[in-house]
Amino acid sequence: MTAHAAVPPIIEVDRVSKSFGDFKVLDELSFSVAPAEKLALIGPSGSGKTTILRILMTLESIDSGHIRIEGEELYHMEKGGRLVPADEAHLHRMRAKIGMVFQLFNLFPHMCVLDNVTLAPVLTKGVAKEAAKRRAMELLDMVGLADKAKAMPAQLSGGQKQRVAIARALALEPRIMLFDEVTSALDPELVEEVLAVMHRLARETDMTMLLVTHEMGFAHDFADRVMFFDRGRIVEQGPPSEIFTNPREERTQGFLRKIIAAGHRI
Ligand SMILES: Nc1ncnc2c1ncn2[C@@H]1O[C@H](COP(=O)(O)OP(=O)(O)OP(=O)(O)O)[C@@H](O)[C@H]1O
């Protein structure tokens, strides 16, 4: 789905800075994301890609700047020199808009697949158990795992676990989904099945999706826009056809040369 410039952004990152000790991870970072846009964040290790996703999820605070989700300020209370969300109610409401899937799937090991997907809507949104189960089965069907509903996580492959983690995040009906290197911990033969699910989500839903990935071929096929990050700043951004085939900046060119030299598809 292609983003439309005239529509107000669903995410605005406005001059956001963040340091860990003396190390400045994000340096006056600014970008916005349109509703339904599919955005891929690429760049060298340590450039701040995961940090910005964690900040959007309120798993990290910020030092300065603004983040607005659907026009509403995410961090606006000063606490120990950091900006944090105003209060629990505000935090809860803002978090409900965003889902995240991590590199490590973190399923609850003592619960079956169906219970893993059902738990959060019942506990955090007060959804009736039967309705949550029905929705969970639809989502498991969508990720190709309806037949594993009663399986325990330990009985699944890494790719299957990651697909359950995607279904679990979707069960909370977020408007925005963040994917942080979701295939990095998988054996190569399991990567495609997870990417196929994400492709399907990108094609068939109007969710806004932000993806941090080292899979350049996937970023190319998936994204409306690719942002190349380095040292906490955006070096260059544009449609995948431009960034991957005709990057303007020396740093982007160098990064892509290394990826190609390592034998990866772009
Ligand atoms: N909680 C933390 N405390 C201290 N340093 C941190 C913390 N989180 C991240 N960092 C550091 O911040 C830098 C940016 O990390 P980040 O994970 O955002 O990079 P990245 O671009 O996602 O890298 P990668 O592609 O390797 O995941 C790294 O040098 C990392 O070690």
UniProtKB/TrEMBL annotation:
Which keywords does this chain's UniProt record carry? Amino-acid transport, ATP-binding, Cell membrane, Membrane, Nucleotide-binding, Transport
Q: Which SMART domains does the record associate with it?
A: AAA (SM00382)
What protein name applies here? Ectoine/hydroxyectoine ABC transporter ATP-binding protein EhuA
Where does the record say this protein resides?
A: Cell membrane
UniProt-recorded Gene Ontology molecular function terms: ABC-type amino acid transporter activity; ATP binding; ATP hydrolysis activity
Provide the species name: Salinarimonas ramus
- Its GO CC terms? plasma membrane
Q: Which family does it belong to?
A: Belongs to the ABC transporter superfamily.
What NCBIfam families does the entry give?
ectoine_ehuA
Q: Which residues form the ABC transporter domain?
A: 11-256
Main location, first listed in the record:
membrane
Question: In what way does this protein cross or attach to the membrane?
Answer: Peripheral membrane protein
InterPro entries reported for this sequence: AAA+_ATPase (IPR003593), ABC_ATPase_HisP-typ (IPR030679), ABC_transporter-like_ATP-bd (IPR003439), ABC_transporter-like_CS (IPR017871), Ectoine_EhuA (IPR014343), MetN_ABC_transporter-like (IPR050086), P-loop_NTPase (IPR027417)
